[in-house]
Amino acid sequence: xxxxxxxxxxxxxxxxxxxxxxxxxxxxxxxxxxxxxxxxxxxxxxxxxxxxxxxxxxxxxxxxxxxxxxxxxxxxxxxxxxxxxxxxxxxxxxxxxxxxxxxxxxxxxxxxxxxxxxxxxxxxxxxxxxxxxxxxxxxxxxxxxxxxxxxxxxxxxxxxxxxxxxxxxxxxxxxxxxxxxxxxxxxxxxxxxxxxxxxxxxxxxxxxxxxxxxxxxxxxxxxxxxxxxxxxxxxxxxxxxxxxxxx
Amino acid sequence: xxxxxxxxxxxxxxxxxxxxxxxxxxxxxxxxxxxxxxxxxxxxxxxxxxxxxxxxxxxxxxxxxxxxxxxxxxxxxxxxxxxxxxxxxxxxxxxxxxxxxxxxxxxxxxxxxxxxxxxxxxxxxxxxxxxxxxxxxxxxxxxxxxxxxxxxxxxxxxxxxxxxxxxxxxxxxxxxxxxxxxxxxxxxxxxxxxxxxxxxxxxxxxxxxxxxxxxxxxxxxxxxxxxxxxxxxxxxxxxxxxxxxxxxxxxxxxxxxxxxxxxxxxxxxxxxxxxx
Amino acid sequence: xxxxxxxxxxxxxxxxxxxxxxxxxxxxxxxxxxxxxxxxxxxxxxxxxxxxxxxxxxxxxxxxxxxxxxxxxxxxxxxxxxxxxxxxxxxxxxxxxxxxxxxxxxxxxxxxxxxxxxxxxxxxxxxxxxxxxxxxxxxxxxxxxxxxxxxxxxxxxxxxxxxxxxxxxxxxxxxxxxxxxxxxxxxxxxxxxxxxxxxxxxxxxxxxxxxxxxxxxxxxxxxxxxxxxxxxxxxxxxxxxxxxxxxxxxxxxxxxxxxxxxxxxxx
Lengths: 247, 276, 267
Hints:
The complex is a heterotrimer of chains A (247), B (276) and C (267).
Chain A: H1 7-25, H2 33-43, H3 47-80, H4 82-97, H5 104-111, H6 115-139, H7 143-151, H8 156-194, H9 198-208, H10 212-240
Chain B: H1 5-8, H2 10-13, H3 29-49, H4 59-71, H5 74-106, H6 108-123, H7 130-137, H8 141-165, H9 169-177, H10 182-219, H11 224-234, H12 238-272
Helix pairs in contact in B: 4-12, 5-6, 5-8, 5-10, 5-11, 6-8, 7-8, 8-10, 9-10, 10-11, 10-12, 11-12
Chain C: H1 2-10, E1 18-28, E2 34-44, E3 48-52, H2 59-67, E4 74-79, E5 82-84, E6 91-94, H3 106-110, H4 112-117, H5 121-134, H6 150-163, E7 168-172, H7 180-196, E8 200-205, H8 208-214, E9 217-222, E10 227-232, H9 242-247, H10 249-263
Parallel strand pairs in C: 3-8, 3-9, 6-7, 7-8
Antiparallel strand pairs in C: 1-2, 1-4, 4-5, 9-10
Helix pairs in contact in C: 5-6, 8-10
């Protein structure tokens, strides 16, 4: 991405377009950007927003945490053992591109119409890409490194902890970053389908009471939070994979 | 083509013999797939029989329910409402996604204008605005089509863009050294080079489109496959609910796998010269 | 710089015998790196001249400037005594990574230079077939690059450069991505081919043996910034065949001479 004009100018132009077109059209569904931005200040001070943020963050953190642990372990298993790979590969490849939105309603009677279902949705959205990328990473570990460790008498756990995981780190971190992107989508999708929890409930309320400016303000806040999160993970990814260049 | 079907089958050719080291590895991949399916559905059946939850029917019941839904015509009617907006949305995505992507790859100005919003559309949880769209456009076709386009367009656009943008420098240089025109560069090098990425992008787009259509239908009462899922959940007939979920996931998987097979066949054929 | 001029002046040649001349070429990149500094080289008609030097000496940059693929920051390139400003029909390039289209057959790849010029299909494929044969690829016309070994791919790259009937072949480390045994075979075949085709060749390499074995003239470049340090004409008889050449005292002396020159610039 090397353009003569900086990226933020592009976004500024689109913001301006939004502002002008909504002012001209005068649609109630799409309020002008300036009004939305002003409303953001109000929305973030609402008790309901802060509660929703805590609930959402908690569900996201738990779901993603589970996805990380399961994803990396299963991915490593598939990377190291052909039998595990042959049995699981089909399913991982089905679920990574399946319409998992359809599964959310099935979670509700199983796990209750509440936070647990949202946690499960985050997990379901995030875990597959982490598995696939970890598997790739582990498969790509240099055989001579593995032989070196084995000839020096490394135990299974040492092999995993000291050789496989660090070697596979670039791919694992890519998986984690993509998992975070998918997890953010999962937490929002879970909440709007359930419509009773966190931001999902707020979106629903604003729509039903026709508070469009607040609705859009919330959308922008959620997008921004998602972006900050992904950026942080991106930074972490670069920090953790510095050595990869010199491999 | 029929005589070559076996050797073209990607799963059949992907695994060379593993030798004596790994006896079970000698099983052909298709057997492994069947084993894997059997294991998964067996565990499902078992979990449903225990049962781990009243809302989790055994696999057998789900299959029975699926046949029930098919023979009553309910499922087919539902897909009659689900598939048209999906197809319309995906057609729009194919035209505009590839168009935008190629334009972005070729012109700095369109790259500047479209790249940032596309990245946002791809990274942000766009699902958040789908309730608004269903609210604004009602339960008709339009809302569903928009939902499909929103969730499928960015992948197709960005993949097409990357395919064009990252055309091998040395091929471009080669065209220049033989005094090719810009037009020749685009038509003879960049587009063929990007075709693989574009195709892959379309697959990702279709996957996104399925997510979008189901989401739209879950949020709008009462149409299509999403409605079947919601309805049977509300009346606690979980076997039917799982059957509907199973059907949409199976459909998406079949479509995507089919495309992948076609894709591999095209590129394999190209690699063997049988298409020219 | 002065020493080079002195060497060049010591053996003046007729202007008509100079096919390509690089005059005071310099190249500075946007980040301030000086890749080339006042490089002047004359390339004689019908000869093979190598540009030899360590990585970073700007030899490939120089070749691409001569090809018209990169603009120079200063100086000019003359072909047949006319200044050129971009790629031209009298020069054809052979790429280090072959630059073959993976989706096209050998035949289409080889004919591609003519395809870009709008030569009718039947005609260009006839010409392409001829050169596919002369580089030793006969029978591989309908294969795809992925089905060929590195050596065969570069033969296709060479055939493509020959089809356009350019006087000058510009070869950018053409054999460096090819394994040692195949490289020797390709070197011998190239010399053989050049005896039939009247071409002038500018050849970039980092292998001293390759440079001496192939060249009528070897131009040594060094880095920071890239400049010419010496020009050598090995001047042994190639008629005796490849094995004899590689044992020829003048061949061995030239290799030693170049190595002793180059190693003082390595640090």
